[in-house]
Amino acid sequence: MRVNHKLLTKFVLSGMQKNKKTLVPFLVAGTFTVMIFYILTSLAYCPYIYMDGKEAFYGAQTIAIMLNLSSQITVVFAALFIFYANQFMIRGRKKEMALYGVLGMSKRNITTIMVMESVIHACVCIGMGLICGTFLNKLMLLVLYKIIHQPSVDGMLFSMIAFKKTLLVFVVIYAVCLIYNVSSIRVGNPMELLRSDKTGEKEPKIKILSFVIGIVTLAAGYYLALTTNSTFDAINILFVSILLVIIATYCLFIAGSIFILKVLKKNRKFYLKTKNFISVSNLMFRMKHNAAGLASICILSTGVMLLLACGSSLMMLGEKNISDLYPTDIKLVTEDAAQADETAYKNTVRDAADAVGTTCADLIYRKYDTVFAKKTDSGFSYTDANAMMQISDCADMYLVSLENYNHYTNKDIHLSENEVLLYDSNASVKSRKSLALFGTTYQIAGEVDYKTMYYILDASMTLFDRVILVFPEQSQIDQIMGKNSNQQRNRIYLGCNTKDTLTQEEMDKFETVILKRLPDAELHFKSMDEKFFYNLYGGAFFVGIFLAVLFLMATVMIIYYKQMSEGYEDQKRFEILAKVGLTEKEAKRSIKRQVMILFFLPVAVAMLHIIVASKIICLFLKMVLIMDMFTFGMSLLVVCIIFFIVYALVYKVTSHQYYQIVYGRMRDR
Amino acid sequence: MAILEVNHVKKIYKTRMGGEEVTALRDVHFTVEPGEFVAIMGESGSGKTTLLNILACLDRPTVGKVLIEGKDYTTLKDNERAVFRRENLGFIFQDFNLLDNFSIEDNIKLPLVLAGESPDDMDKKVRIVAEQLGIAELLKKYPYEVSGGQKQRTAVARAIISDPKMLFADEPTGALDSKSSTNLLKQLRKINENGQTILMVTHSNVAASYADRIMFIKDGEVFHQLYRGTMTRAKLLDKICDSVTVLMRGGDESES
């Protein structure tokens, strides 16, 4: 039979009208996802940040890389999310399609309808997403600039590359959805489809294999996360344990939940109570359908919370990191090639300062040797150049002679020949009394004054344990140095604070003067690197917030869909229960219980994941920056609370909606 | 004393906008004695569903009272009504209204669970009614795994397990084939003979012929009544058919 296209169009439109309640969220979520992807991509290719290898400001490339990375994450995520929402949509429409079939439409006609619908969906989402994205783009750029302390710029942006990419990615996603829909509709004859909603289903069985896999992977993931003690292990283990926990979450939500419910059902005293009787049975079937969705919610929530906590704690620690990296406004490290004395070096710096018309305050001079050593049980030994080294077994070691040390500290300490002063960043070995150093055992006579000596620590080496040793004689240091290849001799640290922040020109001039006299010097200006770090943290924070919003939206959406579909399923059920004599109060309680469990189970598990993960994540972040557990813990706590409040609000709204669906119709009578 | 007393019940529906009024029940007045098996017959639109909804506490009459053992339950609050209903009334519906996520056993147990009985008592009672209705073998199955007749017998079991004062049946054979229908009606008859008062709404002449008394409702009023007396079922069926014909003729006349 040929059906004319006008009629099909009418079917499409009326179908969309009828499914408004599920369609609108689908379109909104789609639009939102497109928009986020477009904004991230267009910012990544934005001339105000980084384009054609040209940075708009110092450090912009890092931000561009982060933006790019996050837009890729968005793609993966968008695909998963749109598939999910699509599946929900199509489930509700199967019956309608079957009805068209019964009314005499051929499968080709139905396919035509579906294609038309998909085209409309895609057009609306992509179109709206691009339009909103284009308008919000500028605003987002300004927000980003604000976060990274950049002065704002004028001009609109429209990125052709981002436009094309967005189009490509989402057309593909919607096309795959369409193919899935068409193929799922084609299966089965019309009568079967019509009935598909009515056929009852068996109580789910426990999937033993998933259950076992879930338990094992969870145990393994948690074990790895909890037993990791160093940043290096964290780097290797983090992704493995994340993967394990994700697998475990899915398996346990799918199989574990059923297992628990079955056990509860077996317990007749518990099961045969009004409130449990209804909830347990309902939950069992809920879980059969929704376990994967709940697991997704759980993982998304975990992701959102961790992302936000990482971002905000990095932001909070930014200041601290910079002051750690730069004890002074200007920092200069060089090798004492000229074998000059302290005054000569200090004068060099003073001269340079004079040249740019500023004065140097708190001029600090430190001389030291550094060696890269291997940790042993009783102390340190030389690194073996030929062997593969376990990086976590290494320490960055700074050696200072007692004479110099006494000079820097204005103290008069005496050490006998086999005594040293020690500072070790690794707190766990602080209780040591003696130390085996490169074959000789020394007694630890005391602690190095950290405040005086911390200037010499290389902040970029925070990954390693950092050790400062004060030896009685320079000759002992020379002896150690003589045998080690992994070393830097006669290092000089010079640092000072300037009266005013130097301008770019002044910095350049300063540098020229210094480099003329000390060609090997590494010169750092705090104010300049500060900017770079703001870019790094700010960029990460910005991207983090974006992804968090995306995840949160997805979570809310999934929950909404869940409650909707469950509400409609439950409507009939509670109607029957009301006929049998369930009071509205009991129904309300039972619904509340059921919705609560479905709602808060994923968050509860997410919070458990976070608690377990906090240590390893913190260690991981130490790779990027100096990080302290307390700040991270606090920001995690704050993020959790905020998330919980948002979630509870969503619960409030959704459960109300749910109750309306379930009980609203009965009320009308 | 009558177990059920329907006292000049009137039901008027108002449209949502408050415009037109529709009278579903004009003036229904009858009583049911303990142990009676009453059938209410009528065309669709005659008001019999409205009447049943009112009797079942699912709806309130606009005017009039419904008393069960002298207690007027139409004035109770919603929650109290629900409790009253599950303690005193049993229901059978045309579309069974079984919960598809409960096994047959749990479906039957439902009223007992709501009443908060002990698990052992439940098992005992379930066994008795399941035996009585011939569904003892099916207890572990789920509704979708059994036939329509078996589903309806499950529904009957659920309705009578709490030992209700009245059993309401709304078109109980409506979704069943003739063999299952006969089977079910015989079961109902048997239950009635054990002392259960039954009120059944139907438009099947055959189904009505199993009752002791048949009331015909038309345009919201009790139009005619038939008593079985000493008649056989076949004889009663003839009578019912005659009445139905008269009822239909009368309808024609009044319309013209």
From TrEMBL, chain B:
<dbReference type="Pfam" id="PF00005">
    <property type="entry name" value="ABC_tran"/>
</dbReference>
<dbReference type="InterPro" id="IPR003593">
    <property type="entry name" value="AAA+_ATPase"/>
</dbReference>
<dbReference type="InterPro" id="IPR017911">
    <property type="entry name" value="MacB-like_ATP-bd"/>
</dbReference>
<dbReference type="GO" id="GO:0022857">
    <property type="term" value="F:transmembrane transporter activity"/>
</dbReference>
<feature type="domain" description="ABC transporter">
    <location>
        <begin position="7"/>
        <end position="244"/>
    </location>
</feature>
<dbReference type="InterPro" id="IPR003439">
    <property type="entry name" value="ABC_transporter-like_ATP-bd"/>
</dbReference>
<dbReference type="GO" id="GO:0016887">
    <property type="term" value="F:ATP hydrolysis activity"/>
</dbReference>
<comment type="similarity">
    <text>Belongs to the ABC transporter superfamily.</text>
</comment>
<dbReference type="GO" id="GO:0098796">
    <property type="term" value="C:membrane protein complex"/>
</dbReference>
<keyword id="KW-0547">Nucleotide-binding</keyword>
<dbReference type="InterPro" id="IPR027417">
    <property type="entry name" value="P-loop_NTPase"/>
</dbReference>
<keyword id="KW-0813">Transport</keyword>
<protein>
    <submittedName>
        <fullName>ABC transporter ATP-binding protein</fullName>
    </submittedName>
</protein>
<keyword id="KW-0067">ATP-binding</keyword>
<dbReference type="GO" id="GO:0005524">
    <property type="term" value="F:ATP binding"/>
</dbReference>
